[in-house]
Write a structure and sequence with these properties.
Length: 231
């Protein structure tokens, strides 16, 4: 059995409704990590995602590298996004039950990491249930203890507009690599993944419907998508 939880960063965007419609068509419920400034820019698109049953979590307001922020500034950035999300849920008339968080760039705050984890515990943030993740490096890096949501497989499709040589073919090679240098393999027996995609209009312009291409291949190869659950 091969299962995966889908997470999508940097919501909201112009292509967010199209992504959500596709996920609904395939019966996939995802966690969309909302960047506060993007939600304000594409507000109706984020409301649409909530009304369609997606969960929108906190991805900070400014998308800064948290190791470059003071603890006070980091908390302020998180709470500014919280204000945006609380208003969003109210306007969508959807109860906000779960409050997951993901650090931009996976940057957990450097010397402030422990203080930020304590902040999450004391302020009602929720940990994604990752007890089924079997990889030794997941435990060695303490991801199983942290409240924030990390990932085991990153498609890195956000790089396509950079024109740095990373291509659709390179993404497919990564998807089919049985022993990647970083993260976990996507296919194979007993794989358990937390997937990272992004809601980027710039990527859609380079590779239209990129999310369909990746997820369709996963479905064809027998990956089952988990509904989000929390500890």
């Amino acid at each position: 059995m091969n299962t995966a939880l889908l997470t999508i960063d940097d919501v909201s965007s112009r292509n967010t409704p199209a992504i959500v419609d596709y996920l609904c068509e395939k019966g996939i419920r995802a966690i969309l990590f909302g960047r506060g400034s993007n939600i304000e820019k594409y507000y109706d698109e984020a409301v649409y995602a909530l009304k369609k049953g997606m969960i929108i979590g906190n991805h900070s307001y400014s998308h800064a590298h948290f190791s470059e922020l003071s603890l006070a500034d980091a908390v302020q950035d998180i709470e500014r996004c919280e204000q945006v999300l609380n208003k969003l849920y109210r306007d969508a008339n959807v109860e906000r039950i779960w409050r997951p968080f993901r650090f931009p760039f996976g940057d957990k705050g450097g010397s402030n990491k422990d203080a930020l984890q304590q902040y999450f515990r004391e302020h009602g943030f929720h940990k994604v249930d990752d007890r089924h993740i079997p990889y030794a490096w997941w435990k060695e890096s303490a991801c199983y203890q942290d409240i924030d949501t990390f990932w085991t497989f990153d498609f890195e499709e956000y790089r396509l507009p950079w024109k740095d040589g990373y291509s659709y073919a390179a993404i497919r090679d990564k998807m089919n690599d049985p022993a990647p240098r970083q993260g976990a393999a996507l296919f194979g027996e007993h794989q358990r993944n937390i997937l990272l995609l992004h809601a980027h209009d710039e990527t859609d312009a380079i590779l239209p419907g990129y999310y369909r291409l990746f997820i369709d291949e996963m479905l064809e190869k027998g990956v089952t998508f988990d509904a989000p659950t929390f500890l």
